[in-house]
């Protein structure tokens, strides 16, 4: 029998990266989530070669104390939770303290940051032992270059530049839809491809899903106890041949959850033909203790404590919103759905 030995730290991170860092778009998601967690109001993304050559995310968030820069790249180090209690109440996107360490293990990464009040910015590269002074007026810049340069087996799974770019663009749209007050720009190979000014839910939804969607959309705003469903859902006249315009969020997090999609589908069952897919941007808000976002590191799946109740709520809420006359007010279902 071979003897047992602990794995080197870098290899541990590279294995973890295999789960979370599937492609440039997954890196982008983690970086933008960090910017949002830092309270950014402006987030600028620059991609080169589909994000494989370079992903640079610049934000105006709170920044990172220069003494903490090495910890930002360390595994299991986070500023977002400190206890199991915090974990059950977590409202930030991140909490594992793993993303930057994983990404840093499979790329050339640098973090440059200047928190409020700091005399100047400091930068840390993942291949250096010490921080160095840098030029930045405020906020944080994270650069991820040459993704998978040191793990060629993973690099082989990357698709064409156009495909990787398209995934990055999808990620931006998902994040932008849920954060309408935050301004975003995205450029690819030095060309600006998306620019979203700060707005509200309505203006951001219209920008992202288009006037045609909006012309057929019903506003959804239904509450029952601690559950609330808001957003926009299109009437069947605007339906799709695929799921490409189904945006579902749980406490601000984009999810692709079978239970939620099924409940929505059921709400459309009587009015939408079997081969067509509804289009919607829906936001479910509930007590964080009622939902486990810890199911998967990429956190696209969630688990509800009361799955049946959630299913019923979504179904009734959406069915009502779709049947309500145009321009009708928010609906309070009170206790009737539970
Ligand atoms: P997590 O987000 O789960 O805490 P990460 O590895 O993504 O883990 O980030 C580690 C830490 O680095 C965060 O907890 C945060 O304190 C800091 N950090 C990362 N990105 C930023 C940013 N853009 N602005 C401010 N702080 C950041
Ligand atoms: Mg994070």
Automatic annotation (TrEMBL):
<dbReference type="GO" id="GO:0030983">
    <property type="term" value="F:mismatched DNA binding"/>
</dbReference>
<comment type="function">
    <text>This protein is involved in the repair of mismatches in DNA. It is required for dam-dependent methyl-directed DNA mismatch repair. May act as a 'molecular matchmaker', a protein that promotes the formation of a stable complex between two or more DNA-binding proteins in an ATP-dependent manner without itself being part of a final effector complex.</text>
</comment>
<dbReference type="GO" id="GO:0005524">
    <property type="term" value="F:ATP binding"/>
</dbReference>
<dbReference type="GO" id="GO:0032300">
    <property type="term" value="C:mismatch repair complex"/>
</dbReference>
<feature type="domain" description="DNA mismatch repair protein S5">
    <location>
        <begin position="205"/>
        <end position="323"/>
    </location>
</feature>
<protein>
    <recommendedName>
        <fullName>DNA mismatch repair protein MutL</fullName>
    </recommendedName>
</protein>
<dbReference type="GO" id="GO:0016887">
    <property type="term" value="F:ATP hydrolysis activity"/>
</dbReference>
<keyword id="KW-0227">DNA damage</keyword>
<keyword id="KW-0234">DNA repair</keyword>
<comment type="similarity">
    <text>Belongs to the DNA mismatch repair MutL/HexB family.</text>
</comment>
<dbReference type="GO" id="GO:0006298">
    <property type="term" value="P:mismatch repair"/>
</dbReference>
<dbReference type="GO" id="GO:0140664">
    <property type="term" value="F:ATP-dependent DNA damage sensor activity"/>
</dbReference>
């Amino acid at each position: 029998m071979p003897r047992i030995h602990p794995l080197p730290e870098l290899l541990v991170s590279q294995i973890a990266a295999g789960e979370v860092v599937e492609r440039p778009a997954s890196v982008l998601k983690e970086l933008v989530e960090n910017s949002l967690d830092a309270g950014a109001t402006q987030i600028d993304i620059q991609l080169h070669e589909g994000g494989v050559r370079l992903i640079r995310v610049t934000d105006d968030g709170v920044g990172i104390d220069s003494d903490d820069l090495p910890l930002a790249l360390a595994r299991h180090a986070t500023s977002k939770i400190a206890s199991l209690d915090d974990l059950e109440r977590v409202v930030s996107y991140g909490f594992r303290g793993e993303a930057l360490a994983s990404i840093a293990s499979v790329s050339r990464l640098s973090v440059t940051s200047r928190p409020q009040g700091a005399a100047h910015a400091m930068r840390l590269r993942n291949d250096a032992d010490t921080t160095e002074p840098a030029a930045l007026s405020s906020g944080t810049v994270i650069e991820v270059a040459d993704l998978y340069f040191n793990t060629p087996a993973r690099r082989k799974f990357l698709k064409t530049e156009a495909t990787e770019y398209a995934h990055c663009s999808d990620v931006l749209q998902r994040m932008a839809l849920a954060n309408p007050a935050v301004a975003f720009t995205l450029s690819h190979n030095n060309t600006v491809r998306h620019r979203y000014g700060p707005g509200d839910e309505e203006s951001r939804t219209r920008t992202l899903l288009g006037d045609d969607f909006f012309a057929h959309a019903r506003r959804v705003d239904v509450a029952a106890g601690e559950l609330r469903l808001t957003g926009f859902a299109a009437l069947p006249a605007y339906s799709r041949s695929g799921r490409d315009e189904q945006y579902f969020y749980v406490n601000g997090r984009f999810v692709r959850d079978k239970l939620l999609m099924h409940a929505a589908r059921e709400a459309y069952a009587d009015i939408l033909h079997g081969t067509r897919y509804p289009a919607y941007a829906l936001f479910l808000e509930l007590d964080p203790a009622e939902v486990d976002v810890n199911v998967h590191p990429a956190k696209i799946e969630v688990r509800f404590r009361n799955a049946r109740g959630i299913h019923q709520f979504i179904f009734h809420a959406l069915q009502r919103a779709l049947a309500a006359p145009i321009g009708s007010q928010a609906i309070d279902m009170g206790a009737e759905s539970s």
